[in-house]
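Whether sequence alone determines local backbone shape is best considered at the level of individual chains. Part of our work consisted of pairing the sequence of a single chain with a tokenised description of its backbone. This step matters because it turns folding into a mapping between discrete strings. For completeness, the protein is quoted in full, as a sequence line and a line of structure tokens:

_____
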Amino acid sequence: MIVGIAILIALTAFSLLTPLVVDGSPTGQNLAQTLQPPGPGHRLGTDHLGRDMALRLAAAIRVSLSVSIGATIVAAVLGVGLGVLAGSRGGLVDRLLSTAADMVLALPGLLLVLLIIAIAPGRFWPLYLGISLVLWIEYFRMARAITIRVAASPAVQASQLLGFGPVYVFLTHYWPQMAPMILTVGAFGAATAILSVAALGFVNVGIRPPTPELGQMMIELLPYYHEAPYIIAQPILVVFLLVLSLNLIAGGKAR
């Protein structure tokens, strides 16, 4: 877990500090310096359009982290809220929400995201919405199971008999049971979101150029893998490290 946190902090620091120490723009082209190897002028080299790889990787990491964090928060709020509602009310409400969750789960996640992106191609919000709708199921099932178990406990029944409201019951009885698992599911969910954004960029239906995105950078650099393998290896390595760090954090929380 410590290794995962260290990797994530290092990548975040790289994405935030690089624009402060490297001149230029991640979208600025220089066709006289295409596919340059790492050197004094460009610490990580340049791509096929002469764009600085350090600046592009930093911008792409910010995009991936912002989408993954935003989608994970939306999915957690939606999934936990509906899970607690289903577990505490039971009956018809529980059956309807559980059926809706099963219906969403029956669709391939990537297909669902693609359908939503088709509504407004090139925009950020369909990415957030599509990935959130894929991720909320895990939170829903976890919150529902914990709520059903805790709701039957004498402590919850005593709080309800004393007239405490649902907010108090949630914060006092449900949330302490859910919090450790939500952090674990959230870390896995953020890793899934990063892979989803990269996969969509790789098939050229995610974030549109010229905004740098890791999957999009891979597909752009793929034709040049033979003459500049060190360039295409960079976005692949960044995706690997991002997912590895989040999985290490999630694994550490689960133990």
